[in-house]
Amino acid sequence: MSLTLSQCPESFKYASSDYSDDDVNPFSLVCSSLTVTMFWLGVGFALASLPIVSSALNITVLQPNVSFVPTPLPAPFAARNADAIASAFSNLGRTTVWNLIRAIPLQGDLWEPEGMVRIGADRIVISAGEYTSATVTYGKDTNGTSVIINGTDRSAGSGFAHLVVFDGNGTRIADATISEAGSEEYHNGGIDYDGEYIWATIAQYRPNTTATLVRVDPSTLEPTPLYRIADHQGGVVHDTETEKLYTLNWGSRNSSVFPSCPDGGFYSATFTRPAEVRRNPSYFVDYQDCKFLGHPKLYDRRSTMICSGVATIGSGNSSYNLGGIALVDTETMVPVAEVPITLSSELGQRITQNPMDVDVVDGRLRLYWLPDQHNSTLYIYEAQPDSPFEYGGEGGAVW
């Protein structure tokens, strides 16, 4: 089966026999003059194409005469300001003063927000999980070890994955349900926007399970499934230069790499093995939401993403929720810079819990956070450039 694509980078000329009969080789895309032949390396399996319109899509439009996103679609804030963001980030520290620019209440129940992208100055798209029945842990055995059944420690629960569109003042424009009723995959994690599509992972809400990587048309909110993945995936970024997708599993402990041929439209119900898997060497925080930053000059043009997240340190009454942000080399998962964040929402949630976006405004680094469930407020903070350094700085020792 072959299909002519409008984009298919030369970097995906690849063939390998290192795939079992139960896996799809993601790099079995052989590009020749913009024609892609997709073939199965195992025994007797044909890839199936999926219509662009997903049967899971169910949209409630609250502002009928208002477009979901601006036309033409603008460039993503993170990628178009990559060098300025990297430079401003390099001046952050534990003593950075964060000034609240604005707190915007978002209209309606947002269940659990997971990811966020700003598309232009007046549109915000939020990924969220609506949970209709909770997951339940399988408990512990007589040795105090968690009981594991089929590779995971809890039941599936149930719910729906949402994409919700707001304007810049928090008015709800549309709410799209993008998972099937009854599907065990209903957790919509961290998302990315590349100037053309929104990228998302819809996963089971438990570790070591399954997920589907989807591409969403911002103008219609219609998802196109691309890959089935044999692990929970809680976030994704798209490197638009290398045309690679980087997904993050439960707790962002592993990063998986998949190719992206944006106009392919092909989907296989069989699990696709990632081209690469990288272990996250940092246990500072678990990344909740990331944005592809680009290839900043400051970091020798390495592929870089900016991530925000939390980690619970300790247990019981002595536990502490640590927040943090990081610039991460997407190829290696090695952080190139990271800073703790101690801010909290008015409801007491660590500010870096779940959705994040980034920009530079008038030379100042600006972070957008959305930490609270249900009654959610968008917090916009700006790093004060003349914040005191922890050591040294003006007036310090001269060597």
Automatic annotation (TrEMBL):
<protein>
    <submittedName>
        <fullName>Uncharacterized protein</fullName>
    </submittedName>
</protein>
<dbReference type="InterPro" id="IPR046312">
    <property type="entry name" value="DUF6454"/>
</dbReference>
<dbReference type="Pfam" id="PF20055">
    <property type="entry name" value="DUF6454"/>
</dbReference>
<dbReference type="InterPro" id="IPR011044">
    <property type="entry name" value="Quino_amine_DH_bsu"/>
</dbReference>
